[in-house]
Amino acid sequence: MTLIRASTQMLEMRPDKDIEAVAARCVDAVVNHHYNADFGLINELINHDLSRPTNEYAQLVYTGHCIENLWMLMLEATRRRDEKLFDKFAAWFKRHVEVAWDDVYGGVFRDLQNVDRNVWLVDKVLWAQEEVLIGSLLVVERRGYDWAVELFRRTNSYVREKYPLKKYGSPLWMYASDRKASYEVFLKMPKRVENFHHPRHLMLNLLRLERMLQI
Fold it and tell me: pLDDT band at 139, cuts 50/70/90?
């Protein structure tokens, strides 16, 4: 995830065969090794030789990272002008968000610890919701799919309702909480400001909206 994002951004500035190789390696690792066709989801961890673990890690799908990684892979496919690859990643993005979505309280869960037993961490983190916003708006810009429009609308409504602290007298946003995104639970958590995912999603999506308005 980290390497593909850095590689794509550098290659957008100028070509470099070594960085191209890193980007290709990242795409191959996800498509041909991390992706688990048995359940149509991306495993968080595999062995160093790219084989699948035979222990509990074979069941681990960290959905927050999958959703985050997939919009980065969509941007790499865009850079390559590989429309078929973009559509593959867009479909996987949709699949992971649907699996991670909390139909009871809204928003996405970040960590499916065991696929077959359906064991989740059920806390809610802001950054995972914002990765949905980045990816869905990217699909809206590139494809205009109705499902992506609805996904962005639904997630944006959830985020705007639950995470801003303006009604409590603060300009900041909650960075995490329990499944219900409770303010009372957030107050008991370590004090910090989300200084990476939050501004990144704002900057990327403002730029994307600006481009869409200019069409």
Answer: very high
Question: What is the count of structural domains for the chain?
Answer: 1
Angstrom distances, CA of residue 38 to CA of 41, 80, 115: 8, 28, 10
Task: Give the separation between CA 25 and CA 10, rounded to whole angstroms.
Answer: 15
Distance, CA of 99 to CA of 12 (rounded, Å): 32
The residue segments making up the domain with residue 180 are 2-214
Distance CA 122, CA 144 (A): 31
Q: How far apart are CA 37 and CA 28, in angstroms?
A: 15
Secondary structure of residue 194 in the 3-state scheme: coil
Q: What is the CATH number of the domain that holds 60?
A: 1.50.10.10
- DSSP β-ladder status, 111-114 and 119-121: antiparallel
pLDDT at residue 59, as a whole number: 98
Taking CA atoms, 55 is separated from 45, 52, 104, 117, in Å, by: 11, 9, 31, 14
**HSE of 211 in the Cβ direction (CA atoms, 13 Å)?**
11
How far is 213 from 118, CA to CA, in rounded Å? 41
**Tens digits of per-residue pLDDT, 81-129?**
999 999 999 999 999 999 999 999 999 999 999 999 999 999 999 999 9
